[in-house]
Each structure stands twice: as C-alpha cells, then as structure tokens.
Request: fold
Amino acid sequence: MKRIVIKFGGTSVMDSGRIKHVARLVESVQKDGYEVVVVVSAMGHTTDHLLQLAADVGRCPNPRELDLLISTGEQVSAALLAIALEESGVKAQSYTGAMAGILTDEHFGQAKIKHVHTEALLAALKAGYVPVVAGFQGVSGKGDVTTLGRGGSDITAIALAASLAAERCDIYSDVDGVYSADPRILSQAYKLPSISYKEMHELACNGAQILNARSVEMAMRRAVPIRVRSTFDPADSGTLVEDSPHHAGNFAGLSCLTTQSHVQLHCDAGGGLRSQSWKKNIIALLLEAGIHVEVGSTLKGTAGQLHFAVERADLAAALDLLAQKTGETIPPVVDNHLAKISVVARDVRSSIEVESIVALTRAGLPIVMMTSTEHRLSLFVPIELRESALRVLHDKFAFLKIAA
Ligand code: ASP
Ligand code: MG
Reply:
C-alpha cells in the first residue's frame, strides 16, 4: 500500500473546529488509498505562551526543563486529533516523539535526530491505526525529552517519511505553496508548481518562513519529495519540492531577511597580502567560537577591509571577541538597519548577479554588501528600501520568466 506522512502546522490545529476539519482531511487522504502517518505542531501560539510562562517563573530556565515544557504543546494537538479521528470512525493513536521511537542527541532546544526506531509506528500501521505523532520532539539516549528547534515539527515529518519509506511528505499550513516572493508584500508574486531542494533550502535559510531549513536539508539528503499545501484548500496541489524543478527559466524566487547585521572592519596594514591573512585570521577566530558569519563584497571592492553579515543575536559576542583578540585600533562599523534580499535561482552566476546590480542601481537603491552561493545572490539594502528592492528585482526576473 502507498504510504504518506502528512504534517499540520500550528494554524491548522489552532482550535477544536480546525482539528475536526483536519480529521476530515486525514480521512479523505486515507480514502484515497494511503497508509497515513500524521505529524502535528502545537495549537496556534502555544509554544510562545509556554516559553513566556517559563520566563515568568525563572530568569534563566534550565534547557532540560524548557524542553519538557514546550514538548507538551505538540502532545496536546496529537491527542486531540486522535480523539477527533476516532470520533469520525478512523482508527487512530497518538504518540509523543519518544513513543514514536525518535532518538536524538542531548542538545536541548536544538537536538538532532540520530535514529528513528520505527517498530511502534509500523505495528500501529499494520493494525490499521493512523499514528498521530507529536512533532518537534524526541528522546535522548539518557531518556530525557528533547526538542528540535523552532519550527522543528517539519523535521519530525521528514524524518518519519524517510524512515518509513513514505512516497511523499505533505506539509499543510495556511499558505498554499511556495511563491516567487512573499505575496503579502508583492501582489504580483506567483506560486511555483515546483522547486528544487537546493533552491528551497536557500529560501528557507534566508527569510522565507514556509519550511524549516533543516527539514529541507534532510529531505534533500534522504530524497523525500515534499508538497507544501493549504489545509484550507486541500484540492490545490501546492508546490512540490523535489530534485528536478519545473519552474520556467533560471529564476526561482526572492526572500527577505531582516535579522542580520553588517559589520565592516578596516585593516591597519592597508591592502595586499597582509590584509588577506588578516581577513582569514579574523574569520577563523569567529568560526572557531561558533559564530557563523557570511563574508561579502561591495561594489567599491574590499581592499584592506573585511565585510561580513552576522545574526543580530550573535553580534555582541562577535564584537566582544574582536575587541579582545585582534587588538585592532580602528573600531568596527556596524549597521543594524539592513534587509538581506536574496535572489534564488538555478544558477545565479550566469547573468543574475550583473542584472540585479544594474536593476537596483538604476532604481537608485544602494547596495551595502553582497554575498553569493551557487543558487543565491544576496543584496543588503537599507531596511526601509526592502519593498522597493523586492519589487525592482521581481519585475526584472519575473519578466524573464514569462518570456522563457
Ligand atoms: N511548536 C514549535 C514551534 O512553534 C514547533 C513547530 O511549530 O514546528 O516552534
Ligand atoms: Mg509552532
């Protein structure tokens, strides 16, 4: 029998009415001839509320206790959905992450799945039950409850789909697919029928809040096709994330991230070779301290300078380290008011890079820094110009898409 994992996000199970709606949807997937495993997120903003409660009673809660606390949100949804399914005549059983055999490392709050012991879920399926698994959690080798990081129920869904050899993982939420840009900002954005794992991963890492980035990486590694679809329009086929994309042309989409700072350092020694090793040493220093930085370039060139982006949450630690260890006399220049606009495409190194720079410059939009990978070009612009930058770039590349 064909097998599928379907995951419902927090808005899909926000209240009892929606849980009943989801139960009907699960039933219809089962009637389509699938063996179904369901993964659920916590209802609405439950996780945020639980974290707030912890903050109300403790200044610096132990991560172990936090994980036990926030794992309960998903357990509530799982049990309620199993009850709703039984009510509509579908045999169902709810599972915590531990009961579902999800073994993780001991990194509370950011645990990684080491193995899924599938025996319990396979036995449930064999007995004709729909297992409803609480997402976002597992159990460590020591028996402690762990959580997988914010948005981690997507990771649960992909891990189960891979371990149970499901033909696909459908991720239902209130968005009906992956768009060429955030449709709430650009009304002309269009839905992509499909997108490659690598492109989706770049979008997910750079501000598109559709899928958890680690889940996309896992899906790519373990070859699990994902369909992103809407709980409220289940007939729509949404967007398929898979190996070979069918989106026309080179351009896939745009995303926007506003959580990073730009840091600029000047080398006392000026340009040349000394400046090269100075840059390498500084980057190594930050990376060794576990601070992820992305080194960039500017239109004017970066001789004698180092430009990088860092998550704002890591900025203070990065600046402290630079002040303590480098003995540089010129203080870093920090800009916290930037948006990182990313153009994601099959190949950005062809014409996308030049065309993006020309389009933004012609529109009078300054580019503070640029970074790139094979599938992404990111342009840092002043935060108040982010919508204009998105519009200019979308007009540019969506036009090419229509012409393709
Ligand atoms: N409830 C968790 C969170 O809000 C996990 C998830 O939604 O996937 O981060
Ligand atoms: Mg949630």
About this structure: The chain has eleven helices and 20 strands. The mean pLDDT is 94. The CA atoms of residues 279 and 306 lie 6 Å apart.
